[in-house]
Design goal:
The structure is a homodimer of 339-residue chains. Chain A is of the alpha/beta class and 339 residues long. Chain A folds into two domains: 156 residues, Alpha-Beta Complex (Quinone Oxidoreductase, Chain A, domain 1), CATH 3.90.180; 152 residues, NAD(P)-binding Rossmann-like Domain (Rossmann fold). The first copy, chain A, has nine helices and 15 strands. In chain A, the strands form three sheets. In chain A, strands 3, 4, 5, 6, 7, 14 and 15 form a seven-stranded mixed sheet that branches. In chain A, strands 10-9-8-11-12-13 form a six-stranded parallel sheet, sandwiched between helices. In chain A, helix 2 packs across helix 3, helix 2 crosses helix 8 and helix 5 crosses helix 6. The model of chain A has no long low-confidence stretch (mean pLDDT 94). The interface between A and B is medium-sized, with 32 and 32 residues. Strand 13 of chain A pairs antiparallel with strand 13 of chain B, so a sheet runs across the interface.
Chain lengths: 339, 339
Amino acid sequence: MPVNQQILLDNRPEGEAVESNFRLVSTETPALAEGQVLVRHHYLSLDPYMRGRMNDSKSYAQPQPLGEVMIGGTVGEVVESRHPKFAVGDKVVGMGGWQEYSVVDGDAPGMLRKVDTTHVPLSHYLGAVGMPGVTAWYGLVKIIAPKAGETVVVSAATGAVGSAFAALAKARGCRVVGIAGGPEKCRYATEELGFDACIDYREHPDTKTMAKALKDACPQGIDGYFENVGGYILDAVLLRTNAFARIALCGMIAGYDGTPLPMTNPALILINRIRIEGFIVSEHMEVWPEALQELGRLVGTGKLRPRESIAEGIASAPSAFLGLLKGKNFGKQLVKLTP
Amino acid sequence: MPVNQQILLDNRPEGEAVESNFRLVSTETPALAEGQVLVRHHYLSLDPYMRGRMNDSKSYAQPQPLGEVMIGGTVGEVVESRHPKFAVGDKVVGMGGWQEYSVVDGDAPGMLRKVDTTHVPLSHYLGAVGMPGVTAWYGLVKIIAPKAGETVVVSAATGAVGSAFAALAKARGCRVVGIAGGPEKCRYATEELGFDACIDYREHPDTKTMAKALKDACPQGIDGYFENVGGYILDAVLLRTNAFARIALCGMIAGYDGTPLPMTNPALILINRIRIEGFIVSEHMEVWPEALQELGRLVGTGKLRPRESIAEGIASAPSAFLGLLKGKNFGKQLVKLTP
């Protein structure tokens, strides 16, 4: 039985999350029962939603239980199988959690999916051709539903969701403006990800200067906004919205650590007849096949070339995750779990 | 030529609107040109949206120009006509403004509409079977789109919009909960308007106590909310929303006088996957015929019996309007312009 290193949630954050909220343990992988599959994880995905799960508060999902393996998406390889549909060597994507191996019931719907790595590298099934990519697709296609020529904006622009958003919106003929932290990320956004413009929020740290920067970058106003961040950036975007703008609310990372961040002037929703919609991509499984097909095609044809930040080894997951929450990653944050 | 008393906007409010923002003048009605109609107004409608027009700020509509007759809906009678479609004695609804007479181009689309007063009293075409009624209809039917058994809530519950909302929502099998100011209005809401419950916001003057009152009145949570008010009531409603709740944003009267009122915790939009949509009923003329038909039927069959607050004479319009903004009216606020 291989030894399985795991990261558990040991205790809940008070304010900012810290490394000591997590605990590393080693166990043996159990023997498989009939119908089960043992997966060796190659990569663990780190995503902002995990911060929300660490709190013990009402949300769309149950809190992460204390003392259990942290939730997380994984890609890997079947190393042992007692299920007829899975063979040793199959590449699979699942929700294996922050650990090196997982034992999965091969019949549980949606828990384990075989993937083809001919045109798409395995790790991208955690990013552009996975949950973050579908998240971008749903917000853009189903909520913002832009017409060609409209201007759409996304915050956390160079992350896994933002970079997929850019490729999808360019494919629909939109002007795409990103918001990211630092000149390097902004250069990457315009030079490699296809953004028409990118605003460095560090240079525009308040509503007024951000609204001015948005005015310059969006001379025709904003028709659609994909929100990953919240706080003053949302306030500034609202000031620049056109009539009938649509806002897909996917994340409010700026408020995860404590006091909720207010929306300063919700009357703008009325004044500009805006539609705001919060969504969770896992509640819209019906769109995944169509979305994954388009995303796979964009990656396969080189129109979407996502960058990855890769931490090495399961023990590095907590610090990599805390860095992600502060925007230290560059592109999709992964943890590599094989040598 | 009859003398026409008019109320002009003389100067813009600084903070709260006051009577001296308005000015009463007398003019002679002009001679009609070919195609024009002279209407003697029986009633002027007073509505919260007018407060927004008094400000010189960006909004969905142009500000009310200074020195001109205040905008407003009117019902009346044709007293002179040089248009073949309108005859002396016709009862008509239009946007005649705060004055006793108006001269209207009979061909201008949507400016003047003949109405039938057989089953519906003329004044109701400014309320339940007019713009406020259609406003309630649009927010309920097109945005909230409730299923039977769902719980819907409306603020300013006993006003023209709120009372129509209650009748429309009861007709769809909803539990309908109102929010109004004072025990008399709350009693009227439940005893005459068909509300299942009504919360007196004066007894619940902050988010916490209002959220508690909503929990009691909405034991199954809130599926739809029609917002006329904004401020802490919206904050409290958000705390009690069910997953996939819909909020129709029609008015933010609480913030009209000055500093915008924030939304304290917009992350709830994401947590509960809420859809919020601002709307202006005049931009959805395509629904008016269907909506007016249902509203006329509800009034004609006695299922919607709206109350009216009637001020006498054009000179009383400013004080009646300021009272409306403070919730002093009981039901639809009108000004009677004929003896």
